[in-house]
């Protein structure tokens, strides 16, 4: 295999019809340098897929980790969302929340695993999300623990409803989560109110640890924007790889 083939990456766009949501859902799929269908790959599934690729530069960062840090090649699946209904799909009080969880676990995962050589065990799947994307990633793991047990959360929006659900859990020793939050995120305005993200992440960390989850947690100078998350994404990915 010559160097140009080895260094080449591919980003594929696919549309998936969701029976749960009764609409098409767009996917962006990153295939790493040296991609070979006879091999098998770990996979990172990203909420807010378009933003992870455009603002988080996750494809570029993944290539750097693979080629410069000797990280095992992995596939990335970005699941795009319509921002007009994002809260309704990602928040536990949203009117599309249950349908979105079903779409993700019961339709998107089988579609990817049918069409790409990704590994099919929970410890080879990572769910990644920013803000409410971090929250819905955790909810997916709570709802489908046999499918997901590794979460990458960038300034997760762990609202009281989410923390109440965590409190109802007795044993989360099967869960591993990497959390980062910006110290300047203490008064962030969302479409449902103004929140102290530092406080909500500290409380969520404590709840998860009390129930036996493995938690990697860090607070850094930063605001609730992709400029901060992009800088933190490599460290979060390296935690799992």
Describe the structure.
With 241 residues, this protein is α/β, with parallel strands linked by helices. The protein has nine helices and ten strands. The strands form two sheets. The protein has an eight-stranded mixed β-sheet with strand order 1-2-4-3-5-6-7-10, with helices on both faces. A two-stranded antiparallel sheet has the order 8-9. Strand 8 and strand 9 form a beta hairpin. The longest helix is centred in the middle third of the chain and has 19 residues. The model has no long low-confidence stretch (mean pLDDT 95).
Q: What's this, in brief?
A:
By secondary structure, this protein is of the alpha/beta class.
Question: Can you lay out the helices and strands and say which pair or pack?
Answer:
Blueprint: H1 3-7, E1 10-18, E2 23-31, E3 43-46, H2 49-54, H3 58-68, E4 75-79, H4 86-90, H5 97-115, E5 125-130, H6 132-143, E6 150-154, H7 160-167, E7 176-182, E8 188-190, E9 193-195, H8 197-210, E10 214-220, H9 226-240
Parallel strand pairs: 3-4, 3-5, 5-6, 6-7, 7-10
Antiparallel strand pairs: 1-2, 2-4, 8-9
Helix pairs in contact: 3-9, 7-8
How much helical structure, as a percent, in the residues?
25-40%
Largest sheet: 8 strands, mixed
Following the backbone from N to C, one meets helices and strands in this order, namely HEEEHHEHHEHEHEEEHEH
Beta percentage is 15-25%
Structure class: alpha/beta
Number of helices: 9
Radius of gyration: 17 Å
Q: Low-confidence stretches at least 5 residues in length (pLDDT < 50)?
A: none
């Amino acid at each position: 295999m010559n160097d140009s083939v080895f260094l080449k990456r591919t980003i594929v766009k696919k549309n998936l019809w969701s029976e749960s949501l009764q609409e098409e859902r767009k996917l962006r799929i990153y295939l790493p340098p040296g991609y070979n269908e006879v091999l098998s790959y770990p996979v990172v599934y990203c909420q807010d897929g378009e933003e992870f690729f455009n603002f988080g530069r996750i494809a570029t960062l993944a290539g750097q980790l693979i080629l410069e840090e000797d990280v095992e090649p992995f596939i990335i699946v970005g699941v795009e969302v319509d921002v007009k209904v994002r809260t309704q799909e990602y928040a536990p009080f949203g009117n599309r929340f249950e349908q979105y969880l079903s779409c993700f676990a019961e339709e998107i995962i089988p579609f990817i695993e049918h069409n790409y050589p990704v590994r099919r065990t929970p410890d080879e799947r990572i769910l990644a999300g920013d803000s409410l994307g971090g929250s819905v990633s955790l909810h997916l793991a709570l709802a489908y623990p046999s499918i997901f047990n590794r979460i990458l959360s960038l300034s997760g929006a762990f609202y009281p409803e989410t923390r109440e659900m965590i409190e109802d859990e007795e044993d989360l020793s099967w869960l591993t989560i990497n959390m980062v939050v910006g110290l300047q995120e203490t008064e962030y305005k969302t479409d449902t109110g103004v929140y102290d993200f530092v406080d909500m992440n500290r409380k969520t960390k404590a709840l998860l640890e009390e129930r036996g989850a493995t938690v990697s947690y860090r607070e850094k100078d930063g605001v609730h924007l992709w400029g901060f998350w992009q800088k933190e994404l490599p460290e979060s990915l390296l935690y799992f790889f």
